[in-house]
Design goal:
Layout: H1 7-18, E1 28-29, E2 45-46, E3 65-68, H2 70-73, H3 79-92, E4 96-99, H4 133-145, E5 149-155, E6 158-160, H5 165-168, E7 192-194, H6 200-217, E8 221-225, H7 232-245, E9 250-253, H8 260-263, E10 267-269, H9 271-281, H10 289-300, E11 307-309, H11 314-320, H12 323-327, H13 331-340, E12 344-348, H14 373-387, E13 396-399, E14 408-415, E15 418-425, E16 431-436, E17 442-446, E18 452-455, E19 458-463, E20 468-473
């Protein structure tokens, strides 16, 4: 989904979260309703207290997700080219490959020369531009052999105008008063047409298509595009059936809707954290704004909710700007924060090569791969995420107080008596400060520089602009 179309929907969701809530008990529906349109945005709930989130599959707790844009990944733009590069991706230290939609792209009302991945013409086939079904099956098998998991992008809310269902099941589509199918309202998604989730036969067709990719291609999960636009009741049913079929399947929502994590999804997008990252980097908010977002998540979402944290993805890169445009000198600093926060971190393909251009969305525009210092930087972060118990999803998290909380973000994670602490300067100026927390006491190794630090529970540091320290407990 393109981010240029996302903000109006997300703002509606924020308003529905914040207005009309009279109590903070488990899953209290807001009084705010979406506009009277076919584009479904249900009342947002506050899920606080007794409610628990869907338990996360164990294999996800130490994984880093790597988003693969097949069209732009290589000059060939094929599954075979990615398969050949799997050892390098594995050596980067990521554990899960998320493939943007691999299905055939609609030709009717197509945008640009190649069209949008998110205008799906057939849920059961692969885009011939990328290769064959056999090519993708072999890619998944090779990834699994290297210890990598694979999740697919799934577009449930809408299809291309020339999707096979338009002929075989026209009743699956929402129609206006004149009986004509229509694109989703409120966006410029003129290349797609809205599905009608009031039709339970559509539910069965969607779920059946999903199960095929698990059964025949052995994928490990799905990332669901624009999950906000589809009723939670459908997601709940879909999740129950997929998890019965494969108990360790991973389901990620491109949404920030609290009730999604009660019975449907294992993780949600951290849209507000991404927006906070941009605001802090651009000097519009202090470092402590991160805590504002974390508090919002704690209040709105069920206990144990999980978020995917990121500094860029295909939407951000193409529509809002590269990380260098948006974050300036703070590219590494905010990446550190995204890995240190409790959740699941994401790397977009090319970040490790210093991707500094906005990739075209509807055309071929291959990544310019090159050796870059960011590759070793990300290898350090992914190794910590993979190997250290304190960075597992769900490990304890506490803020480290400093004398410059407006500029410095400090935190400590702990599990099994082992700790990781981070102190990050989120400004473009040098900052001297003191930090204090009982968990800081002991001997530390700095993860990037390797030097040892002794602390009795307090530290006096000076960090240059955008500088950071990531401390690992032990000798």
């Amino acid at each position: 989904m393109s981010h240029r179309h996302l903000f109006s929907t997300m703002n509606l969701l924020r308003r529905s979260i914040l207005v009309g809530v009279s109590t903070l008990s488990a899953c209290v529906a807001s009084e705010v309703r979406a506009a009277d349109t076919f584009s479904f945005v249900e009342p947002t709930e506050v899920c606080f207290g007794k409610s628990s989130a869907v338990p996360l599959p164990e294999w996800v707790r130490h994984t880093t997700i790597y988003e693969v844009n097949v069209r732009q990944y290589s000059r060939e733009g094929t599954f075979a080219a990615i398969e050949a590069d799997l050892p390098r991706i594995r050596d980067l230290g990521v554990g899960t490959l998320w493939f943007m939609p691999i299905h055939p792209i609609g030709e009717e009302n197509r945008k640009g020369t190649r069209g949008s991945y998110y205008a799906v013409r057939d849920y059961g086939a692969v885009n011939p531009e990328f290769g064959t079904a056999a090519d993708f099956r072999r890619l998944v098998q090779k990834a699994h052999a290297l210890g990598l998991r694979v999740i697919l992008d799934w577009v449930a809310n809408h299809t291309a105008w020339d999707h096979v269902w338009m002929k075989t099941h026209p009743e699956y589509y929402w129609r206006d008063r004149d009986g004509r199918p229509v694109p989703p309202l409120g966006f410029d998604w003129t290349d797609v047409v809205q599905l009608d989730f009031r039709n339970r036969d559509l539910w069965r067709a969607q779920i059946g298509a999903l199960t095929t990719w698990i059964r025949e291609f052995d994928v490990d999960g799905f990332r669901f595009d624009y999950a906000t636009g589809v009723p939670t009741a459908f997601w709940d049913e879909m999740s129950a059936q997929l998890r019965a079929m494969r108990p360790d399947v991973f389901l990620l929502a491109e949404a920030q809707v609290p009730q999604h994590q009660l019975r449907a999804f294992h993780a949600s997008y951290s849209f507000d954290m991404m927006h906070a990252t941009n605001a802090i980097a651009q000097g519009r908010e202090p470092a402590g704004h991160i805590d504002d977002v974390l508090a919002q998540y704690q209040v709105h979402f069920p206990r144990g909710a999980v978020f995917m944290h990121y500094t860029t993805n295909h939407d951000e890169n193409s529509w809002q700007g590269t990380v260098f445009e948006r974050l300036g000198g703070g590219v590494r600093a905010f990446a550190v924060v995204s890995f240190m926060l409790d959740g699941v971190p994401l790397i977009y393909n090319g970040q490790e090569a210093g991707l500094d251009k906005r990739l075209e969305f509807f055309e071929r525009d291959p990544i310019a791969w090159r050796a870059h210092p960011l590759a070793e930087f990300y290898r350090t972060l992914t190794a910590l995420r993979r190997d250290h118990p304190a960075l597992a999803t769900g490990a304890a998290f506490e803020r480290i107080p400093t004398t410059k909380n407006g500029a410095i973000y400090g935190l400590v994670r702990e599990a099994g008596g082992r700790r990781v602490a981070a102190l990050v300067n989120l400004t473009a100026r040098d900052v001297a400060f003191d930090a204090a927390h009982p968990a800081l006491a002991g001997t530390w190794r700095e993860a990037f520089r390797g030097d040892r630090i002794e602390s009795t529970g307090t530290l006096r540091l000076q960090l240059r602009s955008w500088e950071y320290r990531v401390l690992v407990s032990g000798p």
